[in-house]
Request: fold
Amino acid sequence: MIMRLTFTTLARPYIENKLSQSDQARANNDVQAEFKYLEDAHVIGQQSTFYHTLIHWRMLQYGLRNRRPKEVLGQIIRLVGALTKTAIGLLPMGNTGGANVSAFKPMPLSEENKSILEQIRRAQS
Reply:
């Protein structure tokens, strides 16, 4: 019997790496890099309800820590969306997940994230 690995399982190492890089940037007081890694994690993980929600939670924490009311409000709304819309596939591919962009806007993928998503898709087949 062949077991097919889920997207979440296959994406886990890539997302955990981005979250670790975000943590390291935060430890170095590099708020721009911290959020950039969260955005990359979002692009990679938005097809997984678990990771999509976790990353928006981390973005909410970022907004609170850095006193960014627009980010806080945007992430509260996006948390609800991640919990309720991910499983039914209402995802704008490439969207970076921050409150600075429309939650409905598809965006181009970076070459790195495009390569990661292709590796995950190949491993699923």
In short: The chain has one domain: 7-119.
